[in-house]
Amino acid sequence: MRFVEPIRDKEQLDDLTNYLKEHNERDYIMWLIGIHVGIRISDILQLRVKDVRKQTHLKIFEQKTKKYKRVIIPPRLRKEFEQFIKGKKENDYLIASRERTSTGKQRPITRKTAWTNINKAAKAIGYREKIGTHSMRKTFGYHYYKKYHSVGDLMVLFNHSEEATTLRYIGIVQDQLDSNMSNLY
Predict the structure, then answer these.
(1) Tens digits of per-residue pLDDT, 49-82?
(2) Secondary structure of the chain: what % helix, strand, coil (to 5)?
(3) Residue 48: helix, strand or coil by DSSP?
(4) Average pLDDT, rounded, for the chain
(5) Any catalytic annotation for residue 134?
(6) What pLDDT, on a 0 to 100 scale, did the predictor assign at position 1?
(7) Where residue 48 sits, what CATH number does that domain have?
(8) Looking at the domain assignment, is residue 3 inside a domain?
(9) Among residues 8, 26, 48, 137, which one is catalytic?
(10) Would residue 35 count as lying in a domain?
């Protein structure tokens, strides 16, 4: 797996978000969940309409950690969900694939499809850093930290046991190293 970066620049983040909104509503919703809630792609892809319809929080049993997590759905995201899920059934996957199982059942897109679509969108707007599905989670963490400076909150959200791990994960350590080395002499 490649190491990916958060999207640090707000303008580039807005450009990518707007591109996805204009080109693929499903991928746009997936992107918004990632950058507003900061959960892993494996957990995003398992969400169903019933998990968001008339809900104030996402209630997730994390696939990777096997831990229960309850995360607020920010007002902007709730508003987007309302429009996106109109006419959809309770058990429909939120990030549904057009392809069906061999028995005709709906399924979510794959992680590979999510990665491909994010990379296509990033390339279309001229984004040059390494990006992937994990960039959504890292972007959430980066901007949360920049706004609130609360590494403790992020440690809880990301299930990290050390501050250094969280700061390295969201790109803050690299930013500090870059700044210090640029201004050494």
Answers:
(1) 999 999 999 999 999 999 999 999 999 999 999 9
(2) 55, 10, 35
(3) strand
(4) 96
(5) yes
(6) 47
(7) 1.10.443.10
(8) no
(9) 137
(10) yes
List pLDDT tens digits, range 17-57. Answer: 999 999 999 999 999 999 999 999 999 999 999 999 999 99
User: Has 137 been annotated as catalytic?
Assistant: yes
**149 an active-site residue?**
no
Specify the pLDDT at position 120: 97
Q: Is residue 24 part of a domain?
A: yes
How many Å separate Cα 10 from the centre of its chain? 15
User: Is 144 known to be catalytic?
Assistant: no
- Among candidate residues 40, 48, 138, 143, the one labeled active-site is 40
Amino acid at position 74, single letter: P
Residue 64 falls in the annotated catalytic set: yes
Which residue segment(s) compose the domain that 55 sits in?
10-182
The answer to whether the beta carbons of residues 57 and 73 sit under 8 Å apart is yes
Average pLDDT score over residue span 110-131: 97
Residues 82-109: what's their mean pLDDT? 94
Q: For residue range 21-32, what is the model confidence (pLDDT) as tens digits? A: 999 999 999 999
Distance CA(159)–CA(119), nearest Å, equals 27
Longest dimension (CA), the chain: 66
Q: Annotated catalytic residue: which of 36, 134, 138, 143?
A: 134
Number of structural domains found in the chain: 1
Look up 160 and say whether it is catalytic: yes
Cα-based angle 111, 75, 142 (whole degrees, multiple of 5): 55
Give domain status of residue 5, yes or no: no
